[in-house]
Design goal:
Blueprint lengths: L1 H6 L5 E2 L3 E2 H7 L5 H5 L8 E6 L3 H13 L4 E5 L5 H4 L11 H14 L6 E8 L6 H14 L4 E8 L10 H13 L4 E4 L5 H11 L3 E2 L10 H10 L10 H19 L1 H15 L6 H10 L3 H13 L5
Parallel strand pairs: 1-3, 2-3, 3-4, 4-5, 5-6, 6-7, 7-8
């Protein structure tokens, strides 16, 4: 997905979050190539790491640098319950001192040439004083020399429900800019128009596209066009959709083989189907296929002979 995003104009990509213990274990095995592979064409690219123990997250960050990632991003935002139960991810939004200790240890250990950034949410919950914790954390992070922060406008406990709060992102941007820092905004960015509007409204230095890029690498092309003052490109034709899906599938199958690629790619295929004029039928077909022959039949029936609609 990162390589497809880059092909369509994403200037920088960030790998999915890695647990520190996982990095330390997998980096010693052959299957590290599934997760930690960085090709020359991938640069610049970053790796996101998560943990609660500096003694484990520091060596994990260093291992990621050894594998070729250009930047390390600390995740203090993940809302998954089993992550929170172990004091990781979003749990650090309510433990400022621990978050700053981890950041300090990682920053000190990394080579000067490797930027360190941090992913945050607006707060852990909506309890009184939660916003104060965010600004205390922001101040401490930039004092420690991080390069930038990405802020998602939901609390940890909200996960992905409701609507992202971009007013807190705007306030955080003011706070960060006074200190000479950089900030990216995140949350509910599913179109080029929404991305450009949020940049203008909140005065962030950029945005991080996450869920909005799944099955939609065209969003980067569209953002770049609007940012340059050009017209919004037309939606991808059915033929263009097939070309992109086949390229994405080929990259995945080359890395994983057919069986695992089928699992890894399913969520992307379901999202790609959203552009198709017969999307409900196509989604069901993508859910059910079990062989390369069945997948080729789907491509033929729904794309090669399809009416553009």
């Amino acid at each position: 997905m990162r390589r497809m995003a880059k092909r369509f104009g994403a200037p920088f990509t960030l790998a999915e979050v890695f647990l520190d213990q996982f990095v330390l274990a997998v980096s010693k095995k052959r299957k590290a190539r599934f997760y930690l592979a960085v090709k020359e064409s991938d640069h610049p690219c970053g790796a996101q790491v998560m943990g609660s123990d500096p003694d484990e997250i520091v060596p994990a960050a260093l291992r990621l640098v050894e594998f070729g990632f250009d930047l390390i991003d600390l995740n203090f935002a993940c809302p998954v319950p089993k992550v929170l139960a172990r004091g990781r991810g979003g749990a650090l939004m309510k433990d400022v001192s621990r978050a700053l200790e981890i950041t300090a240890r990682v920053r000190d250990a990394l080579p000067d040439r490797i930027p360190l950034t941090v992913k945050l949410r607006k707060s852990f919950d909506d309890a009184p004083g939660s916003a104060d914790s965010l600004f205390k954390l922001l101040e401490g992070l930039f004092d420690l020399g991080i390069g930038a922060v990405t802020l998602h406008g939901r609390t940890v406990l909200e996960r992905y429900t409701g609507v992202a709060d971009w007013d807190i992102v705007r306030r955080a941007a003011e706070f960060v800019h006074v200190r000479g820092g950089k900030i990216l905004g995140s949350g509910d960015l599913f179109s080029a128009e929404s991305a450009l509007r949020r940049i203008a409204e909140s005065n962030v230095d950029g945005v991080a596209i996450a869920r909005g890029a799944i099955g939609n690498p065209w969003i980067f092309r569209n953002i770049n066009a609007l940012y340059a003052g050009e017209p919004l490109p037309p939606p991808p034709t059915v033929a263009e959709q097939l070309d992109v899906i086949k390229e994405h599938w080929s990259l995945s199958e080359e890395l994983y083989g057919f069986r695992r690629a089928s699992t890894e790619m399913r969520k992307f295929l379901l999202k790609y189907a959203e552009f198709h004029p017969r999307k409900e039928e196509l989604r069901m077909a993508f859910v059910k296929f079990k062989s390369a022959e069945e997948l080729e039949r789907i491509f033929k029936d729904y794309y090669e002979t399809a009416d553009e609609g």
